[in-house]
Design a protein that fits this description.
single chain; mainly beta; seven-stranded mixed sheet; four-stranded antiparallel sheet; 11 strands; 0% helix; globular
Amino acid sequence: QVQLVESGGGLVQVGGSLRLSCAASGRTFSSSVIGWFRQAPGKEREFVATISRNFGSTAYADSVKGRFTISRDNARNTVYLQMNSLKPEDTAVYYCAATDPIYNPTIYFTRVGQYNYWGQGTQVTVSS
């Protein structure tokens, strides 16, 4: 079982930066694939970024590629999402997600249904 708590959201101006954190409890965190998703009002939850168990494999949505960076610190059971050059269309509730333990160290996942555990979300608002 993994419990996830996001933090770091807030109000920022266009072009600004935020760093989201996702703190996890549970002994299996280092064996889990971690993803960030977001959901804007009236829209479906969408993939943002993901990172494999061994840090070596990452993937990003085209809309955030080059602006967002996902990283993880397994010693601290924490995953980060560094968001730079923020745009109004980045406004959403951001969710951290984790899988059950994964054997493959380099695999990652981009679909909502591939994750087993979710945080409560943190609001990011980008004002123009």
